[in-house]
Design goal:
8-stranded mixed β-sheet, 2 domains, alpha/beta, 29% strand, 36% helix
Length: 321
């Protein structure tokens, strides 16, 4: 039952792990921690893949990782286990280890999670909540969980109800809380490519002539399209158009006698301006790469905040149109 999960006992088990690990290594163990990373995932989520993602993140973003697995309907129950993630940097003999805690919770026990997780957060360090469960994102229980976090990370890409998800995210009370959406993070290369394009003085001179912004998207890429259109529209002071169609996400900027387009084709980002095209590799980013980027952002991102508000308006307009 929920009462069987004691934060004090978990912390004691962590302490015992460090004592045992230190005694087994002549070179000692370095305890590394820059944040508390709480990951909430469904029990059906690929445990092996998620474990590999967390392990890959630890060297650059060492954390006390708390994985909460949602078991769904059933009796009110919480269970836990404690372990370590260790690695040895090349050329060194001393291991670096991070703490990991795994908690399994039924839906009926979700209300108990904040009181369990809060004492487990490392004092005076950021608390990042990565919500991988679309089901939890729509439940009021998430609000209580987010109260213990510095930053909450979602992923609306491929959402079943994308307009609802983006609107909910835009309407979430801030109170100093940072929000992130991996659907926006996936567009970093797009934004960088477009910005580099206008470093060309000839193209920069025609920037003020652009009259329209349009984004076309394939099924499942709604939120990416709204973010991309909202960002470009805000940057140019134009009202963007968004439409469903084609097999790839596509951004088009139009001026009299001057066209710019960015489109993802076969793992490449093809940029065309003034009839000249260039290609750059754009493989589908892994959860590791997306989270690596977001974990490095610990301050407010005003560009994302403005884009999110505008994307939410586009979502409402698109859904009602």
């Amino acid at each position: 039952m929920a009462a069987a999960v004691s934060p004090d006992r978990i912390l004691r088990q962590l302490s015992e792990l460090w004592t045992a690990e230190g005694g087994q290594s002549d070179a000692g163990v370095l305890r590394a921690c820059s944040m508390t990373l709480i990951v909430v995932a469904e029990a059906s989520d690929d445990a092996s893949a998620l474990g590999e993602t967390l392990a890959a993140l630890m060297p650059e973003h060492p954390a006390r990782a708390i994985l909460v697995r949602l078991s769904g309907e059933g009796e009110r129950a919480l269970t836990e286990r404690v372990y370590q993630q260790c690695w040895m940097p090349f050329g060194q003999r001393r291991q670096i280890c991070c703490e990991q805690i795994e908690i399994t919770a039924s839906d009926a026990a979700l209300a108990d999670l904040p009181s369990v997780l809060l004492p487990l957060a490392v004092p005076d360090l950021p608390v990042i909540l990565w919500c991988r469960s679309a089901r939890l994102a729509a439940r009021p229980d998430l609000r209580d969980l987010s109260l213990i976090a510095t930053k909450v990370i979602f992923d609306t890409f491929g959402a079943l109800n994308p307009a609802d998800d983006v609107s909910r995210l835009a309407g979430a009370p801030r109170s100093g809380l940072l929000l992130a959406d991996l659907a926006w993070t996936r567009l970093t290369r797009w934004r960088e490519s477009l910005a580099r394009l206008f470093e060309n003085r000839e193209y920069l001179g025609r920037l003020s002539e652009i009259e329209s912004v349009r984004v076309c998207f394939p099924p499942g890429a709604e939120t990416s399209a709204w973010y991309l259109a909202a960002w470009a529209g805000l940057a140019l002071g134009l009202t963007p158009g968004v439409s469903r169609g084609g097999k790839s996400l596509r951004l088009e900027l139009s001026a009299p006698g001057f066209e710019v387009s960015l489109v993802r084709e076969n793992g490449r980002l093809v940029t065309t301006a003034g009839g000249q095209s260039s290609c750059a590799s754009l493989p589908e980013p892994s959860d590791y790469l997306l989270m690596r980027e977001e974990l490095a952002i610990v301050r407010p991102d005003p560009v994302f905040e403005r884009t999110l508000a505008s994307a939410a308006r586009l979502a409402v307009s698109f859904s009602s149109g």
